[in-house]
Design brief:
With about 725 residues, the protein is an all-beta fold. It is about 0% helix and about 50% strand.
Length: about 725
């Protein structure tokens, strides 16, 4: 206002956004000739702002921030429905978080994820933050709450269960082949109830199956087909049809309302997706005009050749007719003889319904072609492998396989096979190779398969560990303080060598060593036998991948000859500021055993982020027998075990430390006065260390000291 007056100076107000957080568009706001002291600027999206006020020839600026809020949802309870598809379920929600926009109405939607249907949509009144939705059938739902003005939306998933439980189960089977005489080939699936007494004694399963539908999916989860489940009686089988029966796929049965569901895996013929599989076979007949015989086959869901099919074969590209074959009653072959190499098209139909025509393609090969490959990287040494599956030529009785190193074009490995359609080379170093598969035929009219292969180097550090060498079998037990144990380790990897050393656990001195190499042409793992072992030992393996070591042990017989050790625990005290301890006393010397190096170890059972396991927390070694040793500063109420090593033999004891005493204290009890006028006062101490003493002073009511002595406190 103008000084000393009530007159207002007109103000020009400019609001600019300097940065954005919401992504929503914004146009600079200009308001002229403002005379009010307070001005409302609303509908601002999130962001940083600069406001400029111009009046009386002066400019004033200020900044402010509009932060972006969100709608929070808290589930306050779900009530299960009384039965399948019964609309008796409910859910209660509460809006949480920043609430400055809850003064506005909000749009609420509930969608059934099982059916995709919008179940409920309503406007939540301004100011209301708690709402309940009733009459929901069992199912999976999505709740969406939206505030359009601020472009805010949040979603939450929830499930309304049913108090009912299905009794028994359903069994699916393929008992019959496909039906080909309808509009399209249809697979026949049989389903029956497996519970005792038939489905009539299973009311919840009956309710689930009342109006139930089914859906067929591939192994990867791709939807193929849906239909209505048949009615079931007792434990009898009912049949229903589907044009798809994917091998490795699954079928899902849904209640009429879409929830709950029951899924079962499908078997089926390898490679089949529809209710049939076009599966021609090729028989190579040899040189010249003999060519290749092609037996055209359509398989049903039982893997049987479908009879009474008519095939018409043409050359692909030119459309030249090769021929038509009508299968006759009782004949399950449709052989096109002496076919030349090339690509062909096939039109086929079941003779019971000529209108049902199907188009297929096939190739008569004249070259060995790759179908698939699997190449394992070389971890180290000759550790890679190559497997190639190639064109299957029936009637070829011999193959030659070659592994050729590209760097010098040298054949480094070769072997032969009497048949099949795959080759395999193991123990292959990293590098570039040519792999050749040559069929042994009369006039070389089939082109060999030549495949370029790269064997990479394994870079995963987890592969360079000792997990590929295991303690496979314990062949002979150990004797106390002797070296008579026998074991067999096993290397899963075909290392070109494994060197091993057995070491004393206490001194690390070498006990024995050796080396194992695989037999020539060994393609897999091999055993590593070791004998002359003490009961507990350290084993070290050296392979082309590195050196690994660990401690292993054998079962001990005649344990009665082992003196062992005693173990006691002491309680900690807050008064004396002492933690629990574990004391051990060895009985080796008392048993007359000679001095030799010993080691004691203490392990704690603890969770350090990867679950509970044993951790070594303390240890001590000595060139002589350790007779007495104390592990101090331990945790209260925790589980420990002690390992005591002597002359290759280990003994173990486990204990739990006592809790910390709340503090040193005394308990007093007194007897009644005797006829002679005497009484006995008993003073008992608690929470003190063994061997501790205490001073006891007793005074009477007049303050006269009647007893003052230092006595044992334990």
């Amino acid at each position: 206002r103008v000084a000393n007056t009530s007159e207002a100076c007109p103000v020009k107000l400019t609001v600019q956004r300097t940065s954005t957080a919401s992504g929503l568009p914004f146009t600079t706001i200009v308001k002229n000739n403002l005379t009010e002291e307070n001005v409302l600027i609303d509908n601002l999206p999130a962001g940083n702002y600069l406001v400029t006020a111009e009046y009386g020839g002066l400019n004033f600026i200020a900044t402010f921030v509009i932060s972006e809020s969100g709608i929070g949802l808290a589930n306050r309870g779900i009530t299960s429905a009384q039965a399948y598809c019964d609309p008796s379920g409910s859910v209660k929600w509460e809006l949480t978080g920043s609430s400055y926009f809850y003064y506005a109405p909000l749009d609420v939607k509930i969608t059934n994820r099982n059916t995709g249907n919008l179940v409920r949509r309503f406007t939540l009144p301004a100011g209301q933050t708690v709402f309940e939705t009733k009459n929901l059938v069992p199912g999976d739902y999505t709740l969406t709450v939206r505030y359009d003005k601020a472009n805010l939306e949040t979603n939450a998933y929830f499930t309304v269960n049913s108090k009912a439980n299905r009794e028994g189960d359903l069994n699916f089977s393929i008992d019959e082949g496909s039906e080909f005489c309808g509009d399209q080939p249809m697979a026949k699936l049989a389903v029956n109830y497996t519970g005792n007494g038939g489905i009539e004694n299973a009311p919840q399963m009956q309710a689930f199956m009342n109006g139930a539908t089914f859906e067929v999916y591939t192994r990867e989860g791709q939807f193929l087909y849906s239909g209505v489940m048949p009615q079931l009686t007792g434990n009898a089988k009912s049949t229903f049809e589907t044009p798809y029966i994917p091998q490795g796929g699954y079928i899902t049965v849904k209640a009429a309302c879409g929830y709950p569901t029951l899924s079962k895996n499908l078997g089926g013929v390898a490679g089949m997706v529809k209710a049939y599989l076009f599966s021609p076979t090729f028989t190579y007949r040899g040189c010249g005009s003999r060519g290749t015989n092609v037996d055209l086959r359509v398989l049903d869901t039982k893997g049987s050749v479908v009879p009474l099919i008519t095939y018409t074969v043409k050359k692909k590209g030119t459309g030249e007719l090769i021929g038509t074959y009508e299968m006759k009653e009782g004949v399950n072959t449709a052989i096109f003889a002496n076919m030349e190499p090339g690509d062909y098209t096939v039109e086929w139909y079941p003779q019971c319904n000529p209108a049902q025509k199907h188009q297929e393609e096939f190739t008569v090969p004249d070259k060995v072609s790759e179908v698939s490959r699997a190449v394992l990287p070389a971890i180290c040494d000759e550790m890679g492998s190559i497997q190639i599956v190639y064109t299957n030529f029936t009637n070829i009785g011999g193959w030659r396989y070659e592994l050729i190193r590209k760097s010098d074009n040298k054949t480094i490995r070769m072997y032969g096979s009497g048949g099949g359609n795959s080759l395999y080379f193991e123990r292959v170093p990293a590098g570039e190779y040519t792999v050749k598969a040559t069929p042994i035929v009369e006039c070389n009219d089939l082109t060999p398969g030549v495949f370029d292969v790269t064997v990479p180097v394994e870079t995963d550090p987890r592969m360079n560990t000792d997990r590929f060498i295991i303690l496979w079998q314990r062949d002979a037990p150990a004797q106390p303080y002797q070296r008579v144990g026998k074991v067999r380790y096993y290397s899963y990897r075909p290392y070109s060598y494994v060197k091993w050393r057995v070491l004393d656990v206490t001194t690390n001195a070498e006990i024995s060593k050796g080396e194992v190499r695989p037999i020539p042409n060994n393609m897999g793992g091999y055993p590593i036998p070791i004998q002359g072992l003490p009961q507990t030992y350290k084993i070290e393996f050296e392979t082309p991948c590195g050196t690994f070591s660990r401690i292993d042990s054998l079962t001990v017989v005649n344990r009665r000859s082992m003196p062992g050790f005693d173990m006691t625990t002491t309680q900690g005290s807050t008064t004396c500021n002492t933690p629990p301890t574990i004391k051990i006393h060895s009985l080796l010397k008392e048993a007359g055993l000679p001095d030799k190096p010993t080691r004691v170890q203490l392990y704690l059972y603890d969770n350090r982020g990867s679950g509970y396991q044993w951790y070594l927390v303390k240890e001590a070694t000595d060139p002589n027998i350790i007779e007495d040793y104390t592990f101090d500063n331990l945790l209260p109420s925790r589980t420990y075990y002690v390992n005591y090593f002597y002359d290759g033999t280990a003994e173990r004891k486990q204990t739990t430390t006592p809790p910390i005493a709340a503090g040193a204290d005394i308990l007093l009890s007194s007897s009644q006065f005797s006829p002679k006028g005497n009484a006995i006062l008993t003073v008992s101490s608690i929470g003190v260390d063994p061997g501790a003493t205490m001073k006891v002073i007793i005074t009477d009511n007049l303050g006269t000291e009647v007893y003052n002595q230092t006595v044992p406190a334990d």
